[in-house]
């Protein structure tokens, strides 16, 4: 509801008044509901008290009537006993008992009882105890057929019968032969204090009781309320003794609309008030309030019942008065609240609304008057502060927008120059990239040649190393030959020595043979042959020695030359190794140079691409600067709609700021 109220186009005063009206209405409704409940409860309590008081009056009347009947019956009983039953005894005459009262036979003496009834209006009966039963021998009580109740016995189930056997009296209400009596049964004792009979004195109050019932039937509680009487106990419990409509019915099993046996509930308590729902013939439900109280002397339960709606009808007028007063209070309070709200809330808020509408239209010169320090006053102060802040903000925006315009123009000019230089740099980088590409190709060719030379040098180094090894082996062989020739020369020297010794030995042998004469002639021949052989051996040894010496000289010469060749070959190997290392270094350096040139080329290419991108970005920045300048001008036009305080002075300041020369700054 409040959400719908919030979305309407009514002014705040009406909304607040309606909200107040709704709130007050709800409060008043709750209050009236509480009052109604309280009034209803009070009316119910009052009705219950009235019904209980009325019940107490009826109860008091019945109690006093009962007490009067009891006292009268007891007095008459005493009179009867004092005059006609001062002494009692029984005689057996044949098969029957004869009761003597004051020495006279009471059997069949109805005249005595008639005279007593004429004097006292009380009915009387004399009983004799015969075989445990009290048998009537004289009586003024009439049966339903009009005959005297002579020969009748007291039912054994009656409480009076049990009390009489015990020698006790019984005083209470009893119904005999269709009549209601206040009965007083008193035992008759003989000289031995034995119960021999009984006297019944009864006050017939059937007419009086009927008048009481008639009175109860005619009694009204409110408009439709009534009294009724129920039998409390015994076989007839729940029987309606007095009722305007259902008298004589037994309602012991009667249920209310909820299925509860309300009659049994009431008869189970001595007194109280019970509220229950009953169904009408048309199946409608009516709520009944019943106040009841047990009247034990007569075994009655007296009740008064009234429709609850009738009880509450008295409160409806009061409820109507409350409703009218509540509506008047709501309208009066709402009108007063509306007037107060309009004076203290709506009008100040309306002033604040005018200021905010002026602010919305760009007029920042309006301010709301503040006349209070409450929340509304603080709100108006906040609106004024907002206007002041907006005024300062718009001034600042105008100044900053003007500065942005100038700065964007300067950026645009600088970007144009930067774009030209970037394009020149891009062209130079393209040429450098092409030159680096050619240089890279040359360096790669040199690196390939250096790699080939390095390969050839390594192969030559391997050949020279192999030749060096061969020369070394030759030198070693020549050294071995020299050593072998030297050993041969030594052997020849030994042979020459042997030949010389052999020659000496042969000479000695010849001498000895000569000395021996004929005996030594053969030995002398042998010695001569040996000498000749030794001579030839010596000559041969000399020749061989000469040849060996020549060979040694040649071997020495060859060894020296081979050694020189080995040394030269070793030097050549070392030089070739140096050349190989240099060529390898040249090849490695050429490879690195080629890689470096490639990286430089890639870097130059990247720089060229970056330069191209920078050129594009410079163009974009230039376009953005131009767009920023346009937007700044549009912003100036947008904020130009605001009307500021001291507008003339502020405009001159802006024009002065705009006209100030700005030295363009070129971006590096």
UniProtKB/TrEMBL annotation:
This is HAMP domain-containing protein. Residues 600-627 form a coiled coil. GO terms for biological process: chemotaxis; signal transduction. It is found in: Membrane. Belongs to the methyl-accepting chemotaxis (MCP) protein family. The chain crosses the membrane at residues 12-35, 320-341. It holds the Pfam family Cache_3-Cache_2. GO terms for cellular component: plasma membrane. It comes from Comamonas kerstersii. Keywords: Coiled coil, Membrane, Methylation, Transducer, Transmembrane, Transmembrane helix.
């Amino acid at each position: 509801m409040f959400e719908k109220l919030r979305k309407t186009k009514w002014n705040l005063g009406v909304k607040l008044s309606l909200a107040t009206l709704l709130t007050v209405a709800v409060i008043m409704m709750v209050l009236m509901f509480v009052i109604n409940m309280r009034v209803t409860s009070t009316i119910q309590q009052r009705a219950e008290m009235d019904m209980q008081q009325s019940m107490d009056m009826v109860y008091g009347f019945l109690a006093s009537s009962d007490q009067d009947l009891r006292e009268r019956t007891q007095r008459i009983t005493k009179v009867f006993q004092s005059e006609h039953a001062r002494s009692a005894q029984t005689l057996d005459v044949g098969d029957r008992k004869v009761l003597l009262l004051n020495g006279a036979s009471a059997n069949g003496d109805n005249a005595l009882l008639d005279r007593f009834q004429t004097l006292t209006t009380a009915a009387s009966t004399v009983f004799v105890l015969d075989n445990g039963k009290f048998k009537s021998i004289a009586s003024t009580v009439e049966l339903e057929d009009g005959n005297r109740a002579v020969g009748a016995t007291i039912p054994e189930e009656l409480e009076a019968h049990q009390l009489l056997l015990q020698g006790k009296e019984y005083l209470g209400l009893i119904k005999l032969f269709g009549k209601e009596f206040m009965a007083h049964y008193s035992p008759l004792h003989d000289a031995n204090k034995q119960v021999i009979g009984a006297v019944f004195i009864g006050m017939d109050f059937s007419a009086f009781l009927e008048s009481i019932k008639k009175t109860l039937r005619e009694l009204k509680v409110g408009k439709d309320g009534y009294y009724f009487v129920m039998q409390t106990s015994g076989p007839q419990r729940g029987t309606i003794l007095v009722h305007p409509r259902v008298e004589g019915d037994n309602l012991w099993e009667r249920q209310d609309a909820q299925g509860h046996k309300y009659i049994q509930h009431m008869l189970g308590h001595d007194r109280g008030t019970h509220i229950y729902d009953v169904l009408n013939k048309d199946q409608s439900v009516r709520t009944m309030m019943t106040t009841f109280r047990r009247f034990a002397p007569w075994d009655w339960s007296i009740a008064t019942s009234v429709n609850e709606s009738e009880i509450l009808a008295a409160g409806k007028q009061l409820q109507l008065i409350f409703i009218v007063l509540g509506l008047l209070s709501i309208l009066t309070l709402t009108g007063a609240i509306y007037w107060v709200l309009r004076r203290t809330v709506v009008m100040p808020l309306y002033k604040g609304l005018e200021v905010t509408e002026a602010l919305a239209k760009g007029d920042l010169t309006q301010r709301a008057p503040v006349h209070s320090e409450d929340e509304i006053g603080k709100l108006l102060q906040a609106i004024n502060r907002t206007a002041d802040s907006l005024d300062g903000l718009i001034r600042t925006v105008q100044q900053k927008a003007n500065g942005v315009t100038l700065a964007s123009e300067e950026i645009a000019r600088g970007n144009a120059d930067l774009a030209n230089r970037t394009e020149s740099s891009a062209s130079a980088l393209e040429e450098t990239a092409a030159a680096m590409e050619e240089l890279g190709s040359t360096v790669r060719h040199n690196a390939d040649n250096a790699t080939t030379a390095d390969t050839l040098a390594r192969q030559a180094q391997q050949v020279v190393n192999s030749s060096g090894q061969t020369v070394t082996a030759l030198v070693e062989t020549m050294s071995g030959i020299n050593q072998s020739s030297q050993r041969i020369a030594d052997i020849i020297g030994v042979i020459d020595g042997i030949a010389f010794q052999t020659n000496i030995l042969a000479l000695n042998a010849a001498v000895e043979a000569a000395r021996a004469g004929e005996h030594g002639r053969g030995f002398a021949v042998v010695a001569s042959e040996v000498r000749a052989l030794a001579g030839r051996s010596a000559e041969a040894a000399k020749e061989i020695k000469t040849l060996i010496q020549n060979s040694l000289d040649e071997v020495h010469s060859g060894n020296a030359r081979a050694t020189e060749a080995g040394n030269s070959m070793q030097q050549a190997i070392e030089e070739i190794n140096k050349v190989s290392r240099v060529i390898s270094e040249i090849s490695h350096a050429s490879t690195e140079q080629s890689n470096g040139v490639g990286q430089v080329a890639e870097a130059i290419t990247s720089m060229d691409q970056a330069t191209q991108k920078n050129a594009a970005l410079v163009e974009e920045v230039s376009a953005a600067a131009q767009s920023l300048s346009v937007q700044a001008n549009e912003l100036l036009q947008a904020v130009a709609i605001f009307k500021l305080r001291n507008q003339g002075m502020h405009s001159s300041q802006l024009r002065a700021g705009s006209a100030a020369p700005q030295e363009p700054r070129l971006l590096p």
